[in-house]
């Protein structure tokens, strides 16, 4: 210290000599008081004293005390004319204040003057402070000046390297304020710089610029490669920039990082030079004794690995990388092992090396037991990433085992990941149930509700699974010291499906009740609520009623009627009242209907965890670019032969499914009380969430469809009757479809996702979303075999009223992969014709060709709406008769109750307007039809039924377009005469109102002048 | 990018703290406390990397002092680990055989040196012969 600041040293010594925290605080308070008084009477303060006090303040601040005054003094030093004061002002300000502080405004001008002034030392101080804390205001007023300094030829490197990083800071924080148009040439020039300090800083700047707008900086690619050559090959740098013999490892790393933001390197010469350098790094990095040298060379090596992966190098180089990583994950040195695991995980994200990595599975599992949590985390990530259907059992079992010993910090993540893997790759669903129940048993505290909701969803949707799950739950409930989550799942499953076990020992209703009821006194209110529901369900399922059980359950309901929690109270009262009236109980407490398929909340949760980084990660950018492509190859589809319920494909595609939402809503209404059991597991009308809804190619609905059709109208949709699947085919192919295509088609007319076609080799799923006259379908072509399907062809033959565009379908579908093909539809006019998909492929020697109707039916372009009497009648009356209003007496109608018909209308996107027709046997519905020609058209429908003869009815359809009226009438007729079964839901008591997801019904009228006029009339 | 740099001793006393992201005071105290807890009990045989919230901390221990850098999850760990060492070499060069006390009594100089070494959360100068422009008065 040129002049040692005695006062400061004395103060620091004093603090050090304090015996305890209390004395230290006293000393600090005393000093702060002293400084405060001195600052108050600023007149007598010499510059030296001012500096001393500001340093002391910083020291006190560093010790962790609040310093709530004196900021002004620190900031004002910046404006001092002399260097020593200015220096202290800048340094202390940049430590004490952050970019949001108001005081900074006062010095913007001074800082600017220092930057544009001639004094080099002042420039450095100002650039340093702005670089460290600069915010928006600095960016607005200083960016152009800083840019000038960076490219100025008269400035020394010392200033320019600071200018580069200062600009980086301003740009990162406020890219909109800093104008970098045309900077690609400037950046290219900067990369020619000989001074390594300026070059290092400029490279950081380039990374920020290129991650923001990759396309603009192409001209920098060859420069970056030159720099790498200069460093790694020619070692053409001053001695002081080599670090343990390695030419600036940091600059090498940064340069390779920058290159990862360019999608490819096209110029063959540049590419060759780069690969030469990379090859040299990959081969020439040896393990050495000196720790620092080792670290530095491996820092370069790992960055080179990342770049090689990014560039999708030739096979040979890739396998070199994998081999290196394989070596790293088995070394003793913890840092290298950690990085080996981490980079293997990254590698999985960009290239297809799953099989090679699987060879190291045992080694990776060993790392899961490492004492260092950092390594265990990386190992967990890697196991999670490399898991597929072939190794899921092993990996999940390892995770379960580890769960019992893992520290708390990891358990939740571990439980979540195990649950996701079990769901994604379950070889069979009973295994999945086993895993989740084990999870709950071993780590109940760390199993979020989402996990057990999910298992309930699966069991509900898969009948085969229900007895198994119930039996398992029964076994667990016998265990002592049960986690409460297990009580919830157990009670829920036994309530729903306990009756399926009735013949097994220990599973009579009474015994089930006893084992559940044992838990009642010790559980928390939310669980009590579930238990009450499950008692009510038990009452329902015990037919004929057992008076003794009934008495017991009633007693409990009675007891909870006055419980303090109103949810429980309400349930108790309602269940008690309901259970007194047999029939109503049946309706309200019927088995839960299937959950609409949706993306696992778990998966979403896992995806939500997002890192916060200064620059977008190159890998992520790349994977985003990939998903915008038509092809997304996902994991295996189970081979045919395993039960269809095993197919849980989670493929992300955007969808906003109206039908699902209205279905959910309806269900919520009907099952009000029961549904409250788990408001989260019953899908909420969460449009955002539904954006990520998956296609789930479900099996069971088809089975039910067949059953219902086969058994005719008497069939109880809930009867777990014979599940015979009549398979017929009119295809001349040798490969026969394994499903009924016609039924699939009719089912898909009423819903938006499901399987369109399936044979032993391929499964074609469809998922659609509709918005006014636009539609977006995605076809999922899943190869079920272990060998590829070749010569794949898909042609769309659209009818005249639709414009359709199918994205490219690949020629080959890899083994066990799924390919997505989006298909855009625009509706031009009303018509019942549907497009045909001409699909073919070759498997082995057999050519398969099928023509499939696509469910792009008229009703998909309808949006239900409810109208009031004031809107309805004037319009209805304004349309006098044919051809705008058509009426027909339809005979041979499937006898449907009114609620069932209303349901059907709901599925067809017609909104029922209740109470408009005074006759209770009539239905009035309205909807809006969208097409490119006419935009929105209001359609009204009236159905008059005859209670004495349900096989006939009178149908009247009215709209502003004669073609639409005719087509809609015919469509309705088709559906009424031969009703394609809709998803069997429980018989519904009160008639459900189809949800109006789209309230702007009035708005659509306003859009349509015809309708508006009609409404006025 | 580097989010912050901390120099702490084994008792958790902060000897130097430099933040390159705007944090509230209370948040800074929390961060310093948490990072200390995170690194102080780790076995010397463990990795020098540990996850911290949505970032990771790269740390190294020199005698009783922990040098910790919080960086992005995608950053190159070893490069930052050696960055710490380079910083220590620079300090060592400047104070000739640096010890904790040097840093305590000359904390103001350490800030000046750090500013020549790292700026805006990025490495500025990697030469061991850092030419110090600044003077002390």
UniProtKB/TrEMBL annotation, chain A:
Subcellular location: Membrane, Coated pit
Stated family: Belongs to the adaptor complexes large subunit family.
Keyword list, A-Z: Coated pit, Endocytosis, Membrane, Protein transport, Transport
Signal peptide: none
Membrane topology, from the record: Peripheral membrane protein
Name of the protein in question: AP-2 complex subunit alpha
Keyword Membrane: yes
Ranges for domain Clathrin adaptor alpha/beta/gamma-adaptin appendage Ig-like subdomain: 746-855
Organism: Platanthera guangdongensis
Keyword Membrane: yes
Subunit structure: Adaptor protein complex 2 (AP-2) is a heterotetramer composed of two large adaptins (alpha-type and beta-type subunits), a medium adaptin (mu-type subunit) and a small adaptin (sigma-type subunit).
Name of the gene this protein is made from: ALPHAC-AD
Function noted in UniProt: Subunit of the adaptor protein complex 2 (AP-2). Adaptor protein complexes function in protein transport via transport vesicles in different membrane traffic pathways. Adaptor protein complexes are vesicle coat components and appear to be involved in cargo selection and vesicle formation. AP-2 is involved in clathrin-dependent endocytosis in which cargo proteins are incorporated into vesicles surrounded by clathrin (clathrin-coated vesicles, CCVs) which are destined for fusion with the early endosome.
Alphabetized SMART domains for the sequence: Alpha_adaptinC2
Pfam families reported for this sequence: Adaptin_N (PF01602), Alpha_adaptin_C (PF02296), Alpha_adaptinC2 (PF02883)
TrEMBL record, chain B:
Source taxon at top rank: Eukaryota
Name of this chain's protein: AP complex subunit sigma
Species annotation: Platanthera guangdongensis
Domain AP complex mu/sigma subunit: 1-129
Family according to the record: Belongs to the adaptor complexes small subunit family.
Subcellular location: Cell membrane; Membrane, Coated pit
Keyword field: Cell membrane, Coated pit, Endocytosis, Membrane, Protein transport, Transport
A Pfam family annotated for this UniProt entry: Clat_adaptor_s
Membrane topology: Peripheral membrane protein
